[in-house]
Design goal:
seven-stranded mixed beta sheet, binds zinc ion, Chitobiase, domain 2, binds acetamide, 19 helices, 562 residues, eight-stranded parallel β-barrel, single chain, alpha/beta
Length: 562
């Protein structure tokens, strides 16, 4: 009897000393390496231990987030953790909170709580919790003795629009890669994926009413070799497209990660692929497409000889052969295309491009000139404005809004358009001053197709420029020129990944990371909390997560901060 009593006491003492150890464990700043940096992080004593008794609960409305967290913790710990109707990790909606994306995360040694106004806020709380776990969990291998440091985190983003773009036209990427890209965006609390789907070099979205867009427009007969204008044509057929089923799959996947997918259907420029499929969309259907420096592929040369003048472009840059603004059939075509696109994408916005549309063809086209006379348009810029405004009216009639690159300001801005400012800040400033919403994406800070080192010889071929991580980190979407009232029109910021020279998925990751990590803090974290040296120490830790996820990334910033 005495012996049993002694054993029992010993066990209780051991258990309570474990308990005390968890309760009193001393944490330090290093235990909270979170990117983007939250608004408030309290260093508290204690650790929450994941074990076989751990369960997540939060009610049916949070089942998706609850199951996601339970799965993450199960994989991380090797325990079987479920989303149940009770437990020591609670997810809770709190209607009294103000921000749609705000959350509070509280970790104590014996319970975890995430509070938010919406499921999206809960999801961001989970992303922060994920970063309090060791990086190895990203490799889906379980960690023994998994514990989480006690804390109280209060957080909300600075901007409601936090975007990342991908051009899938110059080069094409698999659905699997797009999902991986979305995984990376979610880790960074980015909430918008801008999917650039149509271009001179390829049309990438199935449109049921116009099958030739993908039968013909999704394939080019070759691609130039080397930096534009290139040295030769590789004469390799290249292309691909997403079926509408695949598009739906991507949108649903993104929705689980609280990412909105905004499609871009370029008009009136960058339309060579659509014109190759439906030649009447051109002002001059019989004129041959021109590939700069005559670097046209053998296949296209032959096709042109056989009476097919239009080609899906094989070189980069900007082309004169754009949608005719005079013919009614252009608008009928674009409205049909946009109708299918808007049916597919739940996003409030459709991006309609609007950039880099040369006016040479319109100047000599009788249809375009007739349109200008009929509408009393004084120049071709006003014709472009007519084009965009007409498309906007159609998009608005379906309850949606347009976004356009800053060239849509030329000739007069469509009444309800949101401007994406890419040629520096000027377009965004002008738009905000005239009461239009703006997304800042200046090529000085947000063009991830630029080189990451000044020593270009040592880098894979890129379009040009130099955009190191530090410069991305310094990006402030709100220009000094705006007063407090005008600043309200800045919805947020976005970086763009144009892919002329990005032929593989590994290279796309290399151009994305770690610049995206810097961008995420530039668009999430309050300006006064940003600090470069502090960021680099967290980034040094964060890169272990890239490694565990098997991501390819550029290492210059780590070499500089050893
Ligand atoms: C752009 O980079 N042409 C928007
Ligand atoms: Zn025309």
């Amino acid at each position: 009897m005495t012996k049993i009593f002694y054993v029992l006491i010993t066990c209780l003492l051991v258990l309570s000393s474990c308990d005390n150890e968890l309760k009193e464990h001393v944490n330090s700043e290093k235990d909270y390496m979170i990117i983007p940096k939250p608004e408030l992080v309290k260093v508290l004593n204690g650790r929450f231990k994941i074990n076989h008794k751990t369960q997540v609960y939060g009610g049916e409305v949070l089942a998706a987030e609850g199951n996601y967290l339970a799965k993450m913790l199960s994989e991380a710990s090797g325990e079987s953790i479920s989303f149940a109707n009770q437990g020591n990790i609670q997810l809770k909606l709190d209607a009294s909170m103000s921000g749609e994306e705000e959350y509070v995360l509280s970790v104590q040694y014996n319970k975890i709580e995430i509070l938010a106004k919406t499921a999206k806020g809960i999801f961001y709380g989970i992303q922060t919790l994920r970063q309090l776990l060791p990086s190895q969990i990203e490799a889906k291998t379980s960690v023994q003795e998994l514990t989480i440091p006690a804390t109280l985190i209060k957080d909300a983003p600075r901007f409601s629009y936090r975007g990342m773009h991908l051009d899938v036209c110059r080069h094409f990427y698999s659905v699997e890669f797009i999902k991986r890209y979305l995984d990376v965006l979610a880790l960074h609390k980015m909430n918008t994926f801008h999917w650039h789907l149509t271009e001179d070099q390829g049309w990438r979205i199935e449109i049921k009413k116009y099958p030739k867009l993908t039968e013909i427009g999704a394939w080019r007969n070759g691609t130039i070799v080397g930096n534009y204008p290139g040295t030769e044509n590789d004469n390799k057929k290249y292309g691909g497209f997403y079926t509408q089923e695949e598009i739906k799959e991507v949108i649903a996947y993104a929705a689980q990660k609280h990412i909105t997918v905004i499609p871009e259907i370029e008009l009136p420029g960058h339309s060579s692929a659509a014109i190759a499929a439906y030649t009447n969309l051109s002002c001059f259907p019989k004129e041959q497409s021109i590939v700069p420096n005559s670097l046209i592929s053998e296949g296209s040369k032959k096709a042109q000889k056989n009476g097919n003048p239009k080609v899906v472009q094989e070189s980069w840059g900007v082309y004169d052969d754009v949608y005719c603004a005079g013919k009614e059939e252009t608008f009928a075509f674009l409205e049909d295309v946009l109708a299918e696109v808007m049916d597919l994408f739940p996003s409030k916005y459709v991006h309609i491009g609007g950039d880099e549309c040369p006016k040479g063809n319109w100047e000599r086209c009788p249809h375009c000139q007739k349109r200008m006379a009929a509408h009393d348009l004084k120049d071709e810029h006003e014709l472009q404005s007519y084009f965009i405004t007409r498309i906007e009216k159609f998009v608005n009639s379906k309850g949606k809004q347009i976004i356009g690159w800053d060239e849509i300001l030329e000739g007069g801005l469509a009444p309800n358009a949101t401007v994406m400012s890419w040629r520096g800040n000027a377009g965004g400033i002008a738009a905000a001053k005239s009461g239009h919403d703006v997304i800042m994406s200046p090529n000085s800070h947000c063009y991830f197709d630029h080189y990451q080192s000044e020593d270009k010889e040592k880098e894979p071929i890129a379009i040009g420029g130099f955009l190191p991580v530090e410069k991305v980190y310094a990006f402030d979407p709100v220009p000094d020129e705006l007063n407090t009232e005008e600043q309200k029109y800045i919805l947020g910021g976005q970086a763009n990944l144009w892919t002329e020279y990005i032929g593989t998925e590994e290279y796309a990751e290399y151009m994305l990371l770690p610049r995206l990590t810097a961008l995420s803090e530039a668009v999430w974290t309050k300006k006064e909390l940003k600090e470069w040296e502090d960021f680099t120490s967290r980034l040094n830790h964060f890169k272990n997560r890239y490694d565990a996820m098997g991501l390819n990334y550029a290492t210059h910033v780590f070499d500089d901060h050893k």
